[in-house]
Amino acid sequence: MNERVHVALPGGAYDVEIGPGLLAKSGSFVAPLLHRPRVVVISDENVAALHLETLRAGLASEGISMEALCLPPGEGTKCWAELTRCVEWLLDQQVERGDVVVAFGGGVIGDLVGFAASVLRRGVRFVQIPTSLLAQVDSSVGGKTGINTHHGKNLVGAFHQPSLVLADTAVLGTLEPRDFLAGYGEVVKYGLLGDAAFFDWLEQKGPALADGNGAVRVEAVRRSVQMKADIVVRDETEQGERALLNLGHTFGHALEAATGYSNRLLHGEGVAIGCAMAFELSSRIGLCSQEAPSRVRAHLRTMGMKVDLADIEGDLPDADALLGLMGQDKKVVEGQLRFILARDIGEAFVTGDVSKTDVLAVLKDALAQR
Ligand code: NAD
Question: Do residues 146 and 209 share a domain?
């Protein structure tokens, strides 16, 4: 039996199905959404090589045919050129307003294909079949879609909720360990921002999760999705509480920009380092004890994750330049940087009341340790 989290959004509720082997059963979940027995699927080359035929067979078992487009893997694919390619291909496939587009891959594919679906014929429905840990616990739920531009990450996009999310936890087994751990950065984030008991649980179960324990993986995805769903239902378009999900992202996005959105630093790695820095900043300005950042860092280290700026290979810009990169973040309001800080593990809050001097001090010290 799989687990189900219901995302009770008034304008369009949907289910997130979580469990091993869902690709093989995909037809039975997707069929009720279809007006005709055909879907179009957009994936990336890595995911397609490993799992596309399982998905095809799962859909075919309910008589659903499938056409697929495979894009190059990697963050660089979340761009204008690939968006154009997706939309033109969907039009070539004669996708109609009543059809369903399937995003089959990690967060890159989910964000890009969700955005393509949102603009195609002024919006067609789409199904998320997330295949990375990051996508299963975070990006496939909540309806944020978009691409990057040379101005920064996720600066162009739309809120477009999926009609269904199928998170097959068995496919996590083919992820590269580094990609799995990057996704774990977002799992830890949930504990840190609002659920200290979940963080305690992760301290105990994290190693089993990384080792491939199926039941622990299902439980970690379920709890993460439940938490995200609860927050999204209360604040769909990020007028307030949803911003908490950006814990670690103001630092993380600046580091991603500084490393050129390249393989030097994956998104989830940036989030993990960013969470450690957000707790460091919180401790320095007296919001939380010094023990909290130490505990965060210790857990990330135990999991074999990047924790410090010293863990990023190659040159980094100086503290002033990193602060400048934070200024491009979407979370800037009227020129004021907004940070997610914490009073303790599980007690994060949003604030615009952070002095640049304090942020610079944290960045300078972190750079000095490299
Ligand atoms: P990704 O999509 O690039 O996937 C990471 C790598 O894993 C890729 O090489 C991919 O081909 C590979 N992969 C995926 N599933 C696999 C599998 N089952 N087996 C083997 N390889 C597999 O990156 P990601 O970490 O999944 O997502 C990062 C993106 O998500 C970023 O662009 C970020 O901005 C976005 N994001 C969006 C939201 C949101 O709310 N929309 C939230 C968090 C992150």
Answer: no
Residue 150 a catalytic site member:
no
CA of residue 185 to ligand 1 center, whole Å: 12
Active site residue 67: no
CA 285 / ligand 1 centre spacing (Å):
34
Task: Say whether both 111 and 169 belong to one domain.
Answer: yes
The verdict on the CB of residue 105 being under 6 Å from ligand 1 is yes
Do both 69 and 170 map to the same domain?
yes
Phi/psi at 259 (nearest 5 deg)? -105, 15
Out of 17, 75, 82, 186, which one is annotated catalytic? 186
Please indicate whether residue 238, judged by its CB atom, sits closer than 6 Å to ligand 1: no
Structure tokens at 33: 């959404």
Q: Do 168 and 301 lie in a common domain? A: no
Does one domain contain both 166 and 217?
no
Which of 133, 152, 174 is the endpoint of a domain? 174
Which domain covers residue 165, as residue numbers? 3-174
pLDDT in tens, 81-129: 999 999 999 999 999 999 999 999 999 999 999 999 999 999 999 999 9
For the Cβ of 43 lying below 6 angstroms from any atom of ligand 1, the answer is no
Which residues have C-beta within 8 Å of that of residue 350, sequence separation ≥ 6? 240, 243, 244, 338, 339, 340
Say yes or no: 149 and 211 in one domain.
Answer: no
Q: How many CB atoms lie within 10 A of CB 18?
A: 26
Residues of the chain with pLDDT under 50: none
Give the Å distance between the CA of 112 and the centre of ligand 1.
11
Answer yes or no: pTM beyond 0.90: yes
Ligand 1 center–CA 138 separation, angstroms: 10
CATH of residue 135's domain is 3.40.50.1970
